[in-house]
């Protein structure tokens, strides 16, 4: 459910917050989406888009944490493995 | 090319009728003018120019290949092609799948009353240019006009004839366990190029249809005596459809790997956006080849030396004679079934 | 694609899998609520990377699957009317009602159009003032902000030829209904990540309190799901029951305030029947009284009705995680994606459809955790 994908805000149009729209870039595919629900978003930010609406801004720091966590596990793994 | 450029480069010959009328299919003067000034003029070649009810020609002795297809694509013009170029490529490619050299095509047109003459002429010019590039001649045809509302603009049927100059048996029955499965290039471009201009789902991209002739690539393989067990061009239903059809016809279990299957970034992104699977999306200038393992490397090298198959890749192999099954190893290395797609590819939110 | 493809890395997935193997000492039953998560699990084969003791149970998180037969029949009735342009997400077109589906209605001449966004339906209404435009509003809380905005904008534009057939469903009541069932075997939940981008995860704290089950808000890519499972198993193994947020790059505790505000304005909470499960109190969204003019069921005078599910269908048991698809005698025989009997076979997100497409043969090779 809830097919939503991350894309980069290329441009923003509209003054009224409720009708604010943005052109969102998904790796070269560009589609317009409503930015009504993400008033804090600027050009260059990434947003999660579902049925033509940006529902949240991607927190790039949090996005990295998954990989940071994996790195920690990896380091523990290496400590446990006997040296060749 | 855009309309104004095209009109300047290729002026429309019968401009007093801006739209196709019922009379243009009626058998009388108007139809005669249409045939002479539009089709006859564009497709001119010695066989067609005889204006006979049937085309007469000599073919070399041996086997022939024949195929027929009808084209109903909407919109008529799309990024990377149109219904006309698609028709020529499609028929040429079907012949190529038998390893035949395509020679002659017939073209039947069913035109809806009211179709702008400019549109028809653009399609016809595209077919003329495409046929020339493919080295085929349109030697006979037919034209009908149907009432407005009964035809969705334009339908084209093409039948093609080609000559088989090799002695191999290229068919699913020749497929053997251990055969390498090659794909001639990246997938999903045609379907997504159409989706990009489809009403209600439009998006901006530089995706162009992969509509192209593939016979040169096949003929080069045959010239080099590469053993080919089976060929299949990928059209509606994409790679998944073609592989399932062959697995079923050959009675084989086939295994392919996701990470080996080339998909362009924008096609991948557009599919993710609409919830589609690139392996189910239509192609128009791609084929799969089943090649015995011993010729796999050579086949890839030859394919990569031809423009249309420059990005050919090895994507899997035939596992064993078994209940027909196609499996796909995911990016995570886990296998699951690659099923036949059911019906039209519909975008989803879920 | 940034923030997507990197979460499909095979080596990193194996790392997560190894860690899960390392810490799992007992059998655990974890339910992933969302159909999108089910789809990812079966498509990528994520469950095959997990130790055998971890059983992933596929939850009722497919709003397409759980749309009641009655509502689909209402949609079909409206779509068949000559004055109507019926707009819908693609998912609903193949879902069978009692006798037919939207694709067949289209084939018979109904003006049925697929749209990407509910706002496209509003545009169609503006361009076709002489026609009645109806939008089929299904989906979880994730989709509600979009449909709410469409209704709101239609009201602002004073459109009188636009209406919606609404069948939104809410996740937390469904989880509560599952947990309160005496047969419930689920020990932890992976909550639906995109629902939570809208609603936040405040609503899960009372559930964790009451039922003492871990609830981990989880994303949709393989690394997200594996990470979510790992966090869940860590909790289970140590006897904790907390709300955690794996999908923090998209989800905050409070969620999306402007979206929640408009949902509250345009919709009201109503009882909703879930196909295959039955009615769950306070589990749906309907139009608020102020926007009643945009309610298609009212506008077209469609009476409430009751339709029985086919007897052989055990979708309800599957949605509750009590049975697996292949345990149903109709699976793969009378019931396939081409002619589905019930909720879980109708869309590619449904557990039965996912199993049928990807797993129906045992011949699929197993992966080995290195």
What does this structure look like?
The complex is a heterotrimer of chains A (84), B (350) and C (370). Chain A is α+β, with helices and mostly antiparallel strands and 84 residues long. Chain A contains one helix and five strands. Chain A has one domain: SH3 type barrels (Roll). Helices cover 25% and strands 37% of the residues of chain A. In chain A, strand 2 and strand 3 form a beta hairpin. The relative contact order of chain A is 0.18. The model of chain A has no long low-confidence stretch (mean pLDDT 90). Chain B is an alpha+beta fold and 350 residues long. Chain B has two domains: 162 residues, PurM-like, N-terminal domain (60s Ribosomal Protein L30, Chain: A); 166 residues, PurM-like C-terminal domain (Phosphoribosyl-aminoimidazole Synthetase, Chain A, domain 2). In chain B, the strands form three sheets. Chain B has a seven-stranded mixed sheet with strand order 8-10-7-11-9-12-13. Chain B has a four-stranded mixed sheet with strand order 1-6-4-5. In chain B, strands 2-3 form a two-stranded antiparallel sheet. In chain B, helix 2 packs parallel to helix 5, helix 4 runs parallel beside helix 5 and helix 4 runs parallel beside helix 7. Chain C is of the alpha/beta class. Chain C has a domain of 150 residues: Rossmann fold. Chain C is built from 16 helices and eleven strands. In chain C, the strands form two sheets. Chain C has a six-stranded mixed sheet, sandwiched between helices. A five-stranded parallel sheet of chain C has the order 2-1-7-8-9, with helices on both faces. In chain C, strand 8, helix 11 and strand 9 form a beta-alpha-beta unit. In chain C, helix 2 packs parallel to helix 16, helix 6 packs parallel to helix 7 and helix 7 packs across helix 12. The longest helix of chain C is centred in the middle third of the chain and has 16 residues. The C terminus of chain C is likely disordered. The chains are: A alpha+beta (84), B alpha+beta (350), C alpha/beta (370). Chains in contact: A-B, A-C, B-C. At the A-C interface, strand 1, strand 3, strand 4, strand 5 and helix 1 of A face helix 1, helix 6, helix 7, helix 9 and helix 11 of C.
């Amino acid at each position: 459910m809830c097919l939503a994908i991350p894309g980069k805000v290329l441009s923003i149009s509209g003054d009224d917050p409720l009708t604010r729209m943005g052109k969102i870039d998904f790796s070269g595919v560009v589609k317009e989406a409503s930015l009504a629900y993400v008033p804090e978003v600027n050009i260059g930010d990434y947003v999660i888009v579902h049925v033509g609406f940006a529902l949240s801004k991607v927190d790039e720091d949090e996005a990295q944490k998954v990989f940071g966590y994996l790195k920690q596990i990896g380091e523990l793994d290496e400590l446990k493995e006997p040296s060749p | 090319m855009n309309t104004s450029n095209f009109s300047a480069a290729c002026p429309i010959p019968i401009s007093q009728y801006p739209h196709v009328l019922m009379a243009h299919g009626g058998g009388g003067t108007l139809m005669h003018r249409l045939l002479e000034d539009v089709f006859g003029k564009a497709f001119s070649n010695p066989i067609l120019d005889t204006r006979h009810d049937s085309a007469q020609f000599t073919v070399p002795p041996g086997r022939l290949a024949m195929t027929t297809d009808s084209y109903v694509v909407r919109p008529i013009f799309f990024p990377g092609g149109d219904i006309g170029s698609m028709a020529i490529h499609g028929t040429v490619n079907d012949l190529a799948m038998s390893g035949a050299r395509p020679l002659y095509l017939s073209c039947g047109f069913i035109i809806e009353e009211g179709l702008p003459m400019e549109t028809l002429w653009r399609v016809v010019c595209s077919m003329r240019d495409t046929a020339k590039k493919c080295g085929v001649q349109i030697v006979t045809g037919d034209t009908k006009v149907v009432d407005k509302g009964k035809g969705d603009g334009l339908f084209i049927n093409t039948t093609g004839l080609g000559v088989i100059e090799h002695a191999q048996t290229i068919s699913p029955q020749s497929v053997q366990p251990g055969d390498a499965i090659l794909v001639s290039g990246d997938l999903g471009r045609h379907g997504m190029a159409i989706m990009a201009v489809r009403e209600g789902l439009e998006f901006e991209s530089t995706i162009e249809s992969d509509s192209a002739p593939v016979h040169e690539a096949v003929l080069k393989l045959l010239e080099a005596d590469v053993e080919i067990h089976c060929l299949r061009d990928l059209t509606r239903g994409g790679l998944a459809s073609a592989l399932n059809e062959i697995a079923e016809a050959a009675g084989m279990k086939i295994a392919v790997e996701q990470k080996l299957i080339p998909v362009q970034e924008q096609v991948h992104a557009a599919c993710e956006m609409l919830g589609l699977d690139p392996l189910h999306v239509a192609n128009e200038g791609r084929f799969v080849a089943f090649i015995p393992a011993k010729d796999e490397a050579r086949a890839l090298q030859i394919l990569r030396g031809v423009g249309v198959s420059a990005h050919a890749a090895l994507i899997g192999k035939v596992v064993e004679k078994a209940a027909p099954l196609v499996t796909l190893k995911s990016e995570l290395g886990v296998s699951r079934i690659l099923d036949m797609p059911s019906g039209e590819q519909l975008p989803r939110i879920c | 694609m940034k923030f997507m493809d990197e979460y499909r890395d095979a080596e990193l997935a194996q790392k997560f899998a190894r860690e899960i193997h390392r810490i799992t000492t007992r059998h655990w039953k974890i339910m992933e609520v969302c159909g999108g998560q089910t789809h990812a699990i079966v498509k990528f084969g994520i469950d095959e990377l997990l130790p055998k003791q971890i059983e992933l149970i596929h939850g009722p998180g497919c709003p397409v699957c759980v749309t009641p037969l009655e509502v689909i029949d209402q949609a079909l009735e409206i779509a068949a009317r000559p004055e109507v342009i019926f707009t819908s997400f693609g998912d609903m077109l193949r879902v069978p009602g009692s006798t037919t589906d939207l694709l067949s209605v289209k084939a018979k001449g109904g003006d049925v159009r697929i749209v990407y966004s509910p706002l496209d339906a509003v545009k169609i209404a503006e361009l076709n003032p002489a026609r009645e435009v109806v939008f089929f509003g299904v989906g979880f809380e994730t989709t509600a902000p979009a449909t709410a905005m469409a209704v709101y904008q239609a009201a602002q534009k004073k459109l009188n030829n636009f209406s919606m057939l609404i069948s939104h469903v809410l996740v937390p009541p469904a989880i509560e209904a599952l947990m309160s069932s005496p047969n419930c075997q689920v020990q932890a939940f992976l909550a639906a990540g995109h629902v939570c981008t809208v609603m936040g995860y405040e609503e899960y704290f009372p559930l964790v309190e009451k039922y003492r089950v871990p609830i981990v808000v989880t994303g949709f890519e393989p690394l997200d799901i594996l990470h979510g499972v790992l966090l869940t198993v860590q909790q289970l193994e140590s006897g904790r029951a907390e709300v955690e947020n794996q999908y923090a790059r998209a989800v905050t505790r409070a969620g999306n305030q402007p979206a929640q505000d408009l949902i509250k304005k345009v919709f009201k909470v109503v009882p909703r029947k879930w196909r295959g499960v039955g009615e769950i109190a306070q589990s749906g969204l309907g139009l608020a009284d102020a926007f009643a003019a945009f309610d298609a069921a009212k506008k077209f005078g469609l009476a409430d009705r009751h339709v029985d599910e086919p007897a052989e269908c055990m979708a309800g048991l599957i949605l509750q995680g009590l049975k697996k698809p292949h345990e149903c005698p109709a699976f793969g025989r009378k019931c396939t994606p081409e002619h589905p009997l019930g909720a879980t076979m109708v869309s590619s997100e449904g557990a039965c459809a996912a199993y049928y497409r990807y797993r129906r043969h045992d011949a699929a090779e197993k992966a080995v955790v290195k």
